[in-house]
Structure formats: structure tokens, C-alpha cells
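Complex record, two chains
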Amino acid sequence: MPKIKKKRVGFVLDMTPLVDIGFLLLTFFMFTAKFKSEAEAEQKFVIERPTASADTSKVPENNLATIKIGVDTVYQDTSYYYSLSNENVRLTVWDQQENLTDEMRQKRLLKVPLETLDGLIRNTRAASVKTRFAIDADRSIEYKWIEDLMDVMQRNNATAFNFVTEKKQ
Amino acid sequence: MAGGTGGLGGGGGGKEKRGSLAPKRKKKKRVGFYLDMTPLVDIAFLLLTFFMFTTTMAQPQVMEMSIPPERQEQVDVKQSELLNIRVRHDSQIFYNIGLDAPQALDISELRNLAVNENLRQKNRLITALKISTKVPYGFVVRILDELNLAELDINSQLLIDGLERERKFALVPMTEEDITEIEGL
């Protein structure tokens, strides 16, 4: 008699604590999530950053010009890559820069030789003086790449910049 | 007490029609409102996994660097106030002051050297860092990091002496002479 009344629909588990924790984590990740920029989405190489002691200064988020140096892999050679975080500045600079193909102008991360980089940095400086520069290079790269780049930056008066590093464990 | 019983009695009287339901409820032992949360939990966990996979936790940090603007004029430097740090292609560090012979140095000793030499010369010492083009960039950053760390100690020590720290530091390209001088060491 009591069996019939119970009308058992299945196994019931109290999921409340699970849901509590689930939502707690969900809100946490939602607030901390930072999405990849479009330039980063185009990046096809991985940069192993050099390690430095803990520093509180973080990469600036706005008005940032990033010069990346991707180490050579089976698929590509070592090269400079240039991207700008500010979309307006990017459009101006991309337009002003000569010897870019239309296909290249569509991209947000440009693979460029040093000579083109020179023009890009100059145009960036002209378009917006607020733009800060960051050098994001692989730790295994030869110093020559950095030295050449710093020469170019010095020539264009971009004398203050940042090296992107990783916290030493 | 009397009022309570009266109330109960009245209630019982009013519920006479639903009298058939009353015993059932008592039997059911209601624990609370129950809602099927399965779809909610499904979506929540879907979102949770999405955010967990897309988020990048370790924000990269930066090391600030500044180089002097391009200038043609030559600055004369006293040799005795010049600390040369040269890094050979195989990442071996050599240092010398002025015209002394270069001495090999391990990276772990670099910080102490920078601190001691700077304190000895107070604010006058100029550090010139010459790095071979073949040294990996990661090692260059380590050297710069050590020198930056040394700066902390120098700063606090000089402050005790009542001096304001003026950092004189330059990244100098390596010349042929530098290369030959430290090659066989």
C-alpha cells in the first residue's frame, strides 16, 4: 500500500550544494575572463616568454603596440609581427603604410620584415603619441633580433617600451 | 492557550470539505518546495566549462625599458667610473672596470657586483652592458632583471647616505674589439 502511494519517479539527489558551488565558480570565471583580441586569434605561434622576478606592472591594455617575435618552427621562419590594440590607430597606420597588399591590410597581426616595421612604428608614433610599445619575444630567440628592433625604435623616437615577461616560478 | 485551541477548532471546522486532503498531507511529510533544476544546472555547467577554458589566468607582466634617444654627440666617460659587463656568445659574462682585464662572472654574482660597485662609487658609476648578438633573449632579460633587482639595494643604501639615485646604464652594441678581447677567456 505505501509503495503505490510513493510514486517513485527516480533517484533524487539534493543538488543544491553542487549548484551553489557551480554558480560561484561560474560567476568567478565570468568576471575574470579576458577574451583573446582578434590579433591574438590570428597568431599562429606560441611565445615562450622570458622569466623575470615578480613585478606588479602589467601589460597596458589600451593604446598598445605589440611587436612580437615568433621563433621559427617547421612551418615558418622567425619574423617580426606587429599589432595595435586601438582599432582607429590601426586603421590609420595600416592605410598609411606603403607596400602592404590588400590582403595584408585585412589582418590584425602583420608579419613584417624590419624595414616595414620601421615605417609602421613611425606611422604609429605619428598617429597617436599615447601609444606604448611592448616587445613580446620568445626567450630562445637570438639577441640580434632585439638589438635590431631597439635600433629601429630608437630611430623613431620610441625610446620607452616594455619587455613582456613571465613571472619566475 | 484557550485561544489557540479555539482557533484550531475553528480551522478544523472550516476545512471540513477538504477533510479528505488533510490526512494525506500529514502523511506526505512535506520537506519543502521542489523544482527540477537539471536544465539550469546543465546550462550553468556548460557556461562554467566555457569560461574555464577560455580564460587566461596568468597575465603576463612587463619589464620597463628605456633607451636614450638618438644623439650624435659623444659623451666622455672616465674609465675608472665605467663598469663594463660583456656577455659572450655562449652566455658567459665578463666584467671589468675601466681598463682592467675582464673577469668571468656567474649570473648569480651579478647582483652583488652591481650593488657593491655602485655603492663604492656612489652615484658616479656607469654601467655599460654589451651583449653578443647570439645570446638568447631569455638570458638578456635575466641579466636585466638582476640589474633591476640590484637597483633596489642600491637605492635603499644610497638613501641612508642621503643621496638620490641616478641610474646610469646603457646597452651598448658589441664591437669587434670587445669580441676579440673576451674570446679566448
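Note: The two ends of chain A are 67 Å apart (CA to CA).
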